[in-house]
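Extended Data, panel c. Modelled sequence:
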Amino acid sequence: MPRRGRRAEPVLRAVVVAALAVDAVVHYRSAGPMGLAAPGGIGGDTLFRVQATAAVLAAVFLLITGSRIAYSLAALAALSALVPVLLYTLVDVPALGPIPSMYDPTWSAPKLVSAAAEALALVLAVAGVRVAGRRPRSGWVSTEKVGTPSRR
């Protein structure tokens, strides 16, 4: 991998982790009022807390490992937050079983911050999958010398 890619990966990882952290904070803070949407169902508060927890877990895993799978999980966490915020802002989706209708056509400051953080995390996590895929893997290096026949 080019030297520039090796130096960029920790910065890329830090930005994705920070964006997921912003997403988690906004979801945790917004969870309370969302519980009023469906007092008899799952409730928006539960969905928001699950989303925030998923973002935290993905961020911690990415911070610790920096692996392709960690970047993939970070991208998935960001996507699983970004799609609903766009969908429930642009489309009046009715309640689906125990999941409430959370249609809100307005763009509040926390919603904008969260959507921007999710989009940033998604794009950079996808880039991180490519960057992490080019890193040499420690522990998987062959002990055989190059050019010597194997003893099979």
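Residues 144 and 150 are 8 Å apart (CA to CA). This feature is highlighted in the accompanying rendering.
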